CRISPR-associated endonuclease Cas6 (Belliella kenyensis), 228 residues
Amino acid sequence: MPQIRIVKVVFDTIIQDFEIPSFRGAVIETVGRSHVIFHNHLSDDKLHYKYPAIQYKREGNHASILCIKEGVEEIHHFFINNIGQVRIGNKHTALMVKNVSIQTCNFQVSDEFFTYQIKRWLPLHGENYEKYISLDGLVDQIAFLERVMVGNILSMAKGLDWFIEEAVSVKITSIIKSNWTYLKKKKVLSFDLIFKTNVFLPYGIGLGKSSSIGFGTIEKATIKKLAI
């Protein structure tokens, strides 16, 4: 059961969801591409497939950065170099810090279940999407999404050097909405839903594909829908 530090930095800059990749680019430009942890690309521009220790998000309407584990140690490179305006899309703005929060989380598998809401989760890509749409019936589709979620949790844990030996359980209780969105100019299906799991997950972290740019963010469950 690892203890992991998490730092959340919220800026006074207002952004939209579609501007998060531009916000990420602005931070990377400020820090410099030599700091791989900010962009997860190796020197030959190949992806470094590891759970992102620095995640770019919106907190309310504000640009924010979530730093996990080694990301906490690396964020000072941004503060050292953040001395002027940055470009986010077509606008230039100064990234002024609105607030900073620090917490230490005990990741664990429990005998009880925790309820979460996840927003803009991307469980379906490539073969996963083809398998999903081929399923006959909502029950089978929900079960498929639950298996993907288990895989996302295990992948997150492995990226944080936490190798879970216990069985991980996930139960999707409500699908709030599903939307088509664009990721790297391709249409992808995202989900907002409520689920239960026996794994403790701190609010704000991301699960699944493109969690580094705000997809699949874990939040407190505040929307109640009829259980599936």
